[in-house]
Design a protein that fits this description.
There is one protein chain. The strands form seven sheets. The protein has an eight-stranded antiparallel β-sheet with strand order 21-33-23-29-30-31-26-27. Strands 3-2-5-6-8-9 form a six-stranded antiparallel β-sheet, covered by helices on one side. A five-stranded mixed β-sheet has the order 16-17-18-19-20, with no helix packed on it. The protein folds into three domains: 129 residues; 67 residues, Seminal Fluid Protein  PDC-109 (Domain B), CATH 2.10.10; 138 residues, Jelly Rolls (Sandwich), CATH 2.60.120. The chain is built from four helices and 33 strands. The relative contact order is 0.08. The protein starts with a strand and ends with a strand. Helix content is 15%, strand content 42%.
Length: 455
Amino acid sequence: MPTATITGPVYGVSQTFDFISMSIVFELSHWDSIDDVGLIASGPIIVPVDENGQFSVDLVLNSAGSQVTNYQCFLQYRRTDGTEWIREPIGVFSLSAEGTYQLSDLTIISVEGVSSSLDVYTQILSVLDSVNSGISTTNANVTSSNAILSDANQVLTDTNTVYQNLQSYGSTFLKFKNDWVTSTAYIVNDVIIYEDFLYICLVDHTSDVFSTDLTASNWELFSSVSGLTKGTEPSLTYASMLWYDTANNILKMRSEANDAWADIGTFDQVNNTFTAALVEVLNENDFATDSETQPPSQQSVTAYGDARWLANESAVTSLIGSESVTFTGIPSWARQVELVIKRASATTGIDFLVQVQVGGSDVTTGYYSQSASNSASNGLTTGMVIEASSTASLDTSGVMTFFKEPGTNTWVSCHAIGFAAGGGDVDAGGVVDGLTLIASGTTFDNGSAFIRWRR
């Protein structure tokens, strides 16, 4: 009987596919009759395809009639994931003469009843590309699903402590006995409930008093059943355990020494809100206590700020009729002092002078001081000079500010009073505790002044 030899390749050498094995299948689709008697060739012909996409097979031809022999071609493969064999239809082609043919030489008549003009090789590549695309999409979906499953498993692992303990002890051998009962025989791996906790039996024994059995190491804490929610304090406690006091709606934690409860916060069951418990605060105005764990109260912060500025000021003193006015009470911690002058004037047109005090006495030497008003200027070493006015009874207002140099007893000043501006410095030789405003040999006939200080 005549035959035709069909050879590969099924695919190119450079192409790769996700298969562990592949075969090409030929089934006789149509054979012309001889003398009106049909000839039948039995069964599919399954031909393995090697790793290079090659195969070879001899297909029988008709020896009579019109010499038309049709074969149905299939591609059969198994993926690397181990799934079952899959068969993909390629199409029907005709053989009319003996010879050797590659798949690219065979023209498809139809694919599953639909006419086609592709050759068998091109149709196989199209099917393989479609299969690979589907595999990629499936793998992406599997990867995404695995990620979701991984997240879900992590949540279960993190939150289900009972499940974790079951894994640890081996759930196959655990025997749940419900609530603990006295005078009852228990054996290793029995699990009971006592005061909202699960316990596992470590030693075969007959129960007596639970606390006694627990001290004897007959039982070991397995897990909390309900997070310990009850209105009365549990009789058995453990370090760092949580207890929600339903009688007072307070969440509490046991100390590490297992000797006290600490309030975490209070639940408002009506409004479904939670208020954290306040930590202990320091309520002192001068922050004398050095604490790294206790924050100051709002009241003490306010008082501290007020004490450092708002309340640290002298009374307002009238200058009228005085040759000088002294302000005392500056504390040793002061780092900034202000002399505030309001509408000061003297009976004759003179400059004002400001001296610092140490131990209640004016410092009269060692100043470097300058002040200028319009085109006039002045400089003194006996005090901080303020260029006031050559006109008697001309009111002058403004501020002279002193700044203490860090680590020394030197003070630097600056001022803007009336038309005058200037500055200076002095080494006081000790802790400054006061200021004196001087009318330089005459008397003040108007004005007032006060001082204030801060760190």
